[in-house]
Fold DMT family transporter.
Amino acid sequence: MSPFHPEGLAGLGAAWKSQSPVIRGVVMMCASTVAFAVMHFSVRVASSELHPFQIAFFRNLFGLAFLVPLLIGPGFVQMRTRRFGLHALRGVVNIAAMFLFFTALAITPLAKVTALGFTAPIFTSVLSVLIFKEKIRLRRWTAIGLGFVGMLIILRPGLAVVETGSLLVIAAALLWSLALIIVKTLSRTESSVAIVAWMGIFLSVFSVGPALWVWKDPTLWAWGWLLFIGFAGSVAQVSLSQALKETEPTAVMPFDFLKLIWAALLAFWFLGETPDEMTFIGAAVIFGSGLYVAQRERAAARAGK
């Protein structure tokens, strides 16, 4: 029987539900890493013809289109908000981060961009101290310091030329960490549907102007990549959200490192890029420190309940 037959699909659904939440979470997390890596690779390919700002606009537009079915009916009710300004601020921060990151993808080795992107949780932890006045003990400060050491291992300032793209990724990671802080604030009063939907709306609106500024009519080849970027990005976001819904973040976040593996393989096979060992070493240090910080924050949250 074909797995696409209704009875075959029902059997697959039953088999999926029979798995433990941890297994389902890990599978969805791994799927998200593949989708993110494929999307980043696709942005790199499409940037050979289109400006990153224009690519970002279509990524947001198609991403919003995928959200529309989720908003039909009760979804629109959940979008009601009294924090319109904070949603808008999150959109401004997010679109700036996306523009920086997509530009970096166009000019920097794919594996290096992915590796430096792991600094976002480190910046988030620092901003939590500055904004929410959270108390951090020595072990977490040590982990944060190691994260920045990992960043220096990749950049090697003074020993190698620090590329513009690398600096753009770090700036994007810093902005993404600020966006996460805003989301943390919004989540206290807003539904997840409202947070995701307003993000999609504001990102689409805020990316129109920059896209028109650099506009170039896409070829049929470019349209194909733009559609694929929108699809891969939506799959990545949905898979990641489902993974975090299935089980504890600390159970699935270790698998996020697979993004670097997939990115390195895609870059090697199709772009002829060979990342050096320092990129992997630095990424491992950054990722390990970020994972430790996440675990400590989870433990602190549990202790506070």
